[in-house]
Amino acid sequence: MAEVRLKDVVKRYAGHTAVDRVSLTVNDGDFVALVGPSGCGKTTTLNLVAGLVEISDGEIHIGERRVNDLDPKDRDVAMVFQNYALYPNKTVYKNLAFPLKMRRVATAEIDSRIRAAAKVLDIEHLLDRQPRELSGGQQQRVALGRALVRDPKVFLMDEPLSNLDAKLRVQMRAELKRFHSELGATIIYVTHDQLEAVTMADKMAVMNGGILQQYDTPEVVFEKPVNTFVAGFVGSPGMNMIQAETLHENGGVMARGADGWSLALSPQNVRKALAASSRSIVLGARHSTIGLAEAGTPGTIPGSVYAVEPTGDLTFVHVRLGTAMVVISVPPHTRLRPDQAVHVQFDQQRLHVFDAATGRALA
């Protein structure tokens, strides 16, 4: 396996920059997820590493080699696609053998590699079947096997689970995690599903508009998002964002909403709020850090229930705070009804404060 380094990588099309000065390092043996909404540049970045798209500027290194000018076949990478790309008229064995035959690998070596890959992926009993006889999960394993037999330095995966149903996706996430841990493979994985990134990756690169927003472990990205985009994108549901302004009152600093509600900020959050470029700030809170409280409890904001969503383990409650809307998680037995008056309370130790003008997190 090998390290992958991107330095100020740019991809321009006519009048459009799809990837804008992206720099990151994928350590040898790491599982890195490129995640973001459609059109953010994640697939283009993957294709630049693969050599399927010509780079406009910057440098890409795989191991010790600068690969900018190398053809895809010379980069020693293997791709797994969304649509599996299996040959429908060939058996599983012949699908696995095909990339090795194209490289003129000896027949005995081909058979040895296929048997080894089939054992790792638990598809030994499928080698004589054709793709149409396989389930979606089995086809995905064959697609992984075809990449595995090549023994590449880097695995590149482009939304490989997006065609599977929800139950099978959960199963295949576990399979991919096991695949990575057993082989110590270097994997770059593209997905629009941030849950896949959080559950499988060692590190995740959050992209938007062709720009790398944050690159860190899933835990850090979730707990310490660098801006409002990352905060809102990562997490299910995303972080609640509440527009407010700082206001000096009674010797302290308050956050006041457009509808007149106010919230006294803790000393730590006061320091954050006063570091903003103006009085306008955004308060960010995960659903699990907001609770319901009795009327009159200090540090609460009055609101009303908009909708209730039971999910089994949790119930999500959408609450209006004036014109703002927040999502709160409560125990499943909690009984609430639409338009019911409630009071919400924020855990200020886990409250995020962002600069409304720039969107950046305030430290």
C-alpha Rg (nearest Å)? 25 Å
Query: Which series of helices and strands comes N to C?
Result: EEEHEEEHHHEHEHEEHHEEEHEEEEEEE
Overall number of domains: 2
Number of strands: 20
Poorly predicted runs: none
Task: Please state the overall shape, judged from the principal axes of the Cα atoms.
Answer: elongated
Can you walk me through this structure?
This protein has helices spanning 42-50, 92-102, 107-121, 136-148, 166-183, 194-200, 218-223, 228-233, 267-274, and strands at residues 4-13, 16-26, 31-35, 57-62, 65-66, 77-80, 154-158, 187-191, 203-208, 211-216, 240-249, 252-256, 262-264, 280-285, 290-293, 300-310, 315-321, 324-330, 341-346, 352-355. It is an alpha+beta fold and 363 residues long. The protein has 2 domains: 4-229, P-loop containing nucleotide triphosphate hydrolases (Rossmann fold), CATH 3.40.50.300; 240-355, OB fold (Dihydrolipoamide Acetyltransferase, E2P), CATH 2.40.50. The strands form 4 sheets. It has a 6-stranded mixed sheet, with helices on both faces. The chain has a 5-stranded antiparallel sheet with strand order 13-12-11-14-20. Strands 15-19-16-17-18 form a 5-stranded antiparallel sheet, with no helix packed on it. The model has no long low-confidence stretch (mean pLDDT 92).
